[in-house]
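Entry for pyridoxal-5'-phosphate complex. Fields follow.
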Amino acid sequence: MTEAKTTVTGSNAAIAARVGKFETFPQTPRVKMANFVKELDLYPYFIPNTGKIGPRVHLNGKETIMLGSNNYMGLADHPEMIQAAVDAIHKYGTGCTGSRYLNGTLDLHLELEEKLAKFMGKDGSICYSTGMQANLGTISGITQKGDWVVSDEKNHASIIDGCKLSYAHTKVYKHDNMEDLERILKDLPEEGNRWIISDGVFSMEGNLAQIPRIVELADHYDARVIIDDAHGVGYLGNHGEGSVGHFKMMDRVDLVVGTFSKSFASIGGFVTGNEDLIDHLSNHARALIYSASIPPASAAAAIKALELFEREGDRRHQVLENAAIFRQLVEKSGFTTVPQVIPTPVVPIIIGDTMKMFKYNKELVKAGVYTNPVPPPAAPKAMLRTSLMATHTIEDLEEAAAIMTDVARRCRVLKRPKKKKTS
Ligand SMILES: Cc1ncc(COP(=O)(O)O)c(C=O)c1O
């Protein structure tokens, strides 16, 4: 079968003509889908926000209720966060121009790592420039040739890519299926270290991994555990330490990976764990050693976020309450949501048909509500991933639900209510 190709145009065409054989790119399913929806004028990605990053944003200049952000704690426009970032720029400048390993370490990074380890209840931590790099560096840095990594099939792309970068063998278990995980662990050869790795809160549907069972299986089959809690840290646990803390398993999980790009409203990634593991990664993780460190403003914002998680602890409860209210509102209108055993700020709304979802999404953005459209295979059925913030007001939630309902009826995503007969 011949593979579909995209013809190269623009300045690339001149290069292609010179090189000869590169005049086309292979069309991956993602590119194919993008081209298809672009032709229908339904492409939903890369819409610029022209204003503040908060519960309401300005998409292409138009005020829009933001239901598609990971700014769970609502800190991105917090005055103290902004001030901390501005102060750090004045003190240090705009960028570190080097990696942590060399000239790019600031006292701010050390302060952040110390406070973060304490917050997470671990001995130590090390920060990468993004969460993506935290997984790439940690997985490939901590495993060795001949090791085994056993990974949930719905783990984040950065975990999948971290496994690809590693010299260890990777086995994938069915999503959240502890029998399948055990089946794989049982069959592993004696040689090599074993690592189980899972998201703490799965990003698309917002469900928690069964961390207590994962830990139990790890104990039984002599494996170590890594949890990527990018979506759990901030609002879950005793004081925001995340899903591992929620299950009181911090002392039984070897490494917790996370990101500053969600609840922390900054950028950067981290891994926390025992001193020996962190020390090993500090001197071995290529994504850390060969990439510039977190800029001063972002490091200062992450430190301030840690302070605010504790000082403004009500935000943790508020974001979950907002998610519960919003879920109730949309379910009352007839939408089907994905249920969660332990509630998180993510409220996925099932649409079912992929094209219907893209059309609905387009109209929704026009009407002033932004959500994240998720086509399969990222979700079993096409869905809109909505995510709530601590700073959404009840008016935001009611207005968003009303717009979503109204547009859904127009787009035939929801049936129109039957008119009452007048006698
Ligand atoms: C589970 C998970 N891990 C890691 C990342 C990567 O984080 P970052 O945005 O900091 O690269 C994400 C981001 O979407 C994520 O959802």
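NOTE: The domain at 79-311 is CATH 3.40.640.10 (Aspartate Aminotransferase; domain 2).
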